[in-house]
Structure formats: structure tokens, C-alpha cells
Amino acid sequence: MDRNNLKNLLSRIDSYVEGLFAPSDPALEVALHRARRAGLPEIHVSPNEGRLLQLLAQIAGAKRILEVGTLGGYSTIHLARALPEDGALVSLELDERYAAVARENIVGAGLGDKVEVRVGDGRGLLAEMVENDAGPFDLIFIDADKVSYPEYLEWSLRLSQPGSLILADNAIRGGSVLDPEDESARATREFNETLAKDVRLSALILPLIRERVDGLAIARVL
Length: 222
Ligand code: SAH
Ligand code: DHB
Ligand code: MG
Known about the structure:
Blueprint: H1 3-21, H2 26-37, H3 47-60, E1 64-68, H4 74-81, E2 88-93, H5 96-108, E3 115-119, H6 122-131, E4 139-142, H7 149-158, E5 165-168, H8 183-197, E6 201-209, E7 213-221
Parallel strand pairs: 1-2, 1-4, 2-3, 4-5
Antiparallel strand pairs: 5-7, 6-7
The site of S-adenosyl-L-homocysteine has 19 residues, from helix 4 and strand 2.
């Protein structure tokens, strides 16, 4: 099969799964529309990956969730929907303007009382959270600047407990991790190697299809 046929088949499979398991959802559609109108970059997780995040949070029985990289709150809404009545999610975002859009979307999805979006550099905010003993979280989703992934992993380990899940988006980056040519691909590769080697973790990368191939890293803290 040539490259274009393969791409076409993968994209049809993705749409097929999406049609079955990620049917149209008003709150999510409004969230994407609002983000687009506000000029946010369209780099949110795909509907299928959102579904997977939600399912993983449910399987983990997560009551406290931490997210690094909110953007317009699209992944946040999926994760927060998995929370029980008394659950809570904290999401960290560098850009004040993105955070404002996310808050609107989260309130619009009826999740305003469970979710807090904090503005600042993820590295500093995580350091502060460790300092304040803000952990442990049952699930941590890393999806901010890729160069900081190794650092986010270290902070995440300090904010988790045995059984916690640490997830990270963009672990494959269209295959650029195979032959890294820039800082962010190199950092992602280093992050993946740490996940594989670290004795504190049991992990795997699940390749995912989008417009390009990417992957979700899934790690369980031992
Ligand atoms: N999780 C979102 C997408 C996040 S895109 C979703 O799937 O819906 C990555 C986000 O990380 C962007 O909003 C960007 O502003 C934010 N970001 C980049 N560098 C950051 C940093 N140092 N600290 C916190 N957030 C950062
Ligand atoms: C980018 C960031 C992401 O988190 C993503 O899922 C896709 C692209 C980016 O910065 O280009
Ligand atoms: Mg991402």
C-alpha cells in the first residue's frame, strides 16, 4: 500500500471510531468554536484521544486530577467529566488569555465547580505545589511545552502516589522522536526514555492517529 492510501485508511479508521465512540457533543463543540473565534491555536487533543483520557481517568477512579497545558479547556472538559461529585481538577496554563477562554468553556460545560485554571509557567507552579504539599494527584496529564517534559515528569512524580497515572500527549510527534532534529523532539525522546527506564514507573506509549501519527504516553506510578 502506498503512503497516501495508508494515510487515507488511517484517517477513515479514526473517523469510524470517532463516529462510534465520540459522537457530537454540544459543550465540546461550543468549546472548540469559542477557542477558534478567540484565535487560539488548534492543537487540542482529538475527540478520540479526549475519549481515551476520560476513560483512563474513570478506570483509575481519579478523584484529583492535575493538567499541565490547558489551552481552551477541551482536554480539561473530558478529564473533569470523569470526576465523581466530590472530585477536583487543577489545570495550569501559561497564557492568561487562553485561560480565560478555558474558564468560559469549563463553566459552559457545567464543570465550573470542579475545575480551577491557574495561570503561570507550569514549572514554577508545579514547584510551588510541591512546596505546598498540594499532592498527591491520582492522574496527571502533561500537554504543555515539550522542552519541559523531562522536568514536568520529575515534578509529577513528586505530586503522585503509588497507583497514580502520569499521561503525556505528543510522545511521537509525527515520528520526529525517531530522528530528533530540534530541542522539543530531543526533550520528548528523553522523556520517553525516562518513562521506559525509571524504576518508579510502569509505562507504554500508545500510538494514535490524527492528521499525523502521534502518541499518548501512559505511565503508572509503582
Ligand atoms: N491540553 C490542551 C492542549 C494544550 S496545548 C487540549 O488538548 O485541549 C499546550 C498549552 O500549553 C498551550 O495552551 C500553551 O500556552 C501552554 N503552555 C506552553 N508553555 C507552557 C508553560 N511553560 N507552562 C504552562 N503552560 C504552557
Ligand atoms: C503542539 C502542541 C500540542 O500539545 C499538540 O498536541 C500538537 C501540537 C504544538 O505546539 O505545535
Ligand atoms: Mg498536545
